């Protein structure tokens, strides 16, 4: 089931909702203020696989971990020196 990212227009909270593709246009309630004034955000798609040594590797769309996005292409978490 896809994971969709939203931003609440009332309190600016960012949150994720997992729901079927058939329900993509249904309202998403903000977990902070319970407003229905939310907007779905465009997000990237990431595809992962395991390498021969069992480590995760990104096949398309993203780095192997969220720390890579913040630290650049080679974070210490999945790219030990």
Description:
The protein is mainly beta. The chain has a domain at 3-40. The chain has one helix spanning 66-71; strands spanning 3-8, 14-18, 38-40, 47-50, 56-60. Strands 2-1-3 form a three-stranded antiparallel beta sheet, with no helix packed on it. It is elongated, with a radius of gyration of 16 Å. The mean pLDDT is 78. InterPro entries: Multihaem_cyt_sf, Regulatory_FmdB_Zinc_ribbon. Residues 1-43 form the Putative regulatory protein FmdB zinc ribbon domain. It comes from Phototrophicus methaneseepsis.
Characteristic terms for this protein:
mainly beta; single chain; Zinc ribbon domain-containing protein; Multihaem_cyt_sf; Regulatory_FmdB_Zinc_ribbon; 81 residues
Radius of gyration using CA atoms only: 16 Å
The neighbouring-strand order within the major sheet is 2-1-3
Alpha plus pi helix count:
1
Intertermini distance: 36 Å
Mean pLDDT level: 78
The main pleated sheet reads as: 3 strands, antiparallel
Helix share, percent: under 10%
Low-confidence spans: none
Taken from the alpha-carbon principal axes, the silhouette is elongated
- Tell me the series of helices and strands, N- to C-terminal: EEEEEH
User: Structural class of the helices, strands and pairings?
Assistant: mainly beta
Percentage beta strand? 25-35%
Would you report the number of β strands? 5
